[in-house]
Amino acid sequence: MDIYKVIKEPHITEKGGLQKKLNNQLSFKADRRANKVEIRQAIETLFKAKVLSVKTMNMKGKKRRMGRTVGKRPDWKKVIVTLAPGENIEFFEGM
Known about the structure:
The protein is built from three helices and six strands; from the N terminus they run αβαβαββββ. The chain has 95 residues and is α+β, with helices and mostly antiparallel strands.
């Protein structure tokens, strides 16, 4: 899989900000077909940061109602990446 298609976007939340400060962990939304090895390679290549561990979760899309019709948001994969001590990604510095 192409490394530019593995990581879709950062997943920025309040909990993610605490994880960054306390454990040097970052969270991303990734392609649902990507595995841990591909995610690790993509992070290390794109952001030039050493990755210690990768945790993945398959998140179910929430059901949403619009009037009488009931819809569903798409399912997605959440990735939590632990960086090596001293490593950081400039994109997350404002958190």
